[in-house]
Every structure is written in C-alpha cells, then in structure tokens.
Write a structure and sequence with these properties.
mainly alpha, single chain, globular, 9 helices
Length: about 170
C-alpha cells in the first residue's frame, strides 16, 4: 500500500509541474486544461495547484470537475458494498462515507462558528500529515524491492495512459 501511495504522490507532484507546461505547449484553452487536469491528476490539491498555475478559469473548472468526481465516491461505495455482500453474507456499511456526507451537509447548511471550523480544519491537516508520515516511514528500498519495480512501472504506465487518453478526448471534443 505504501508503494502505491508513494507512486501516486510522486506522479501528482510531477503532474503539478508538467501539466501546465504541456497545456501551454499545446495551446489548450482554460476550460480544456481544467477538465484535463481534473481527470488525469489524482489528488485534489495537485489538481488545484495545476489549475491555478494555468489560469483562473482553469482553476475554477478543474476544481469543480474534480470535486464532482470525488462526490461519486458516495454512490459507488454504497453500490459496491451492496454487490460484494455475497462474500460475507451481509452488507458492509461504509461508515466513513456516511460521516463524509454528513460533514458536507453540515458544512453547507449549518451555521458553524469560525473557531469550530478552524479547529476541525487544523485537526484534519495534522491527521493527514501524521497519516502521510506513517505511510512514508513504511516505505523503504527494501519494500520497493520486495514489491518490485514492475508495480511502480505499472502505476506510471496507467498514469501516462490516462493522461494521454483524456488529453486526446478533451482536445478532440
């Protein structure tokens, strides 16, 4: 898992820098670039960074498309938990999805004091940093050798394929 996550983070960092350069080299309009970045880059923060580096309109479109894609986690998780119930005979309840949806609704419709939202955001960032640290401490050359370079290469090939295919589709539409 740590090799997979490490590969994704490295590719996100690369995309953050090369996508805007490629977009300018191919004279992509802001809307096309924003859509491409949202589809081809995995991490929301990298999508936002690439969109912001390209332009204001690209940032708006990239963020909207990426967050819309992220919302699909909810129905996909619920549907897959129903279809894969045959393995254990009962439906797995993806509680994290429920809490995610409740947090979205609360943040959108409930007035929350700035101190509460600020503290929650601070805690979330710290928790994310600790999680990444723990994943990073598990990643070593020994683990990479054990997993094999083929796994990393597979991730790179998939990333390149998705990036190229989505670029072609978006620029031809």
């Amino acid at each position: 898992i740590s090799v997979s996550i490490g590969t994704v983070f490295i590719l996100n960092a690369i995309a953050l820098f090369i996508f805007p350069v490629l977009g300018h080299a191919f004279h992509m309009p802001q809307d096309q670039f924003g859509t491409w970045a949202a589809i081809a880059i995995h991490d929301v923060s990298s999508v936002v960074g690439a969109g912001a580096a390209y332009g204001e309109e690209a940032l708006k479109i990239a963020t909207t498309v990426k967050l819309t894609r992220a919302l699909w986690i909810i129905p996909v998780a619920l549907v897959t938990s129903f279809f894969f119930r045959h393995q254990s005979g009962k439906i797995y309840k993806p509680w994290f999805i429920l809490f995610f949806a409740l947090a979205m609704v609360a943040n959108t419709f409930l007035p929350m004091p700035e101190i509460l939202t600020g503290n929650i955001l601070w805690l979330a960032k710290k928790g994310f940093a600790v999680t990444l640290f723990l994943i990073g401490t598990d990643l070593s050359l020994k683990i990479i050798r054990t997993v094999g370079v083929r796994s990393i290469l597979f991730g790179v090939i998939l990333w390149a394929f998705i990036s190229l295919l989505s670029f072609i589709v978006i620029t031809l539409l």
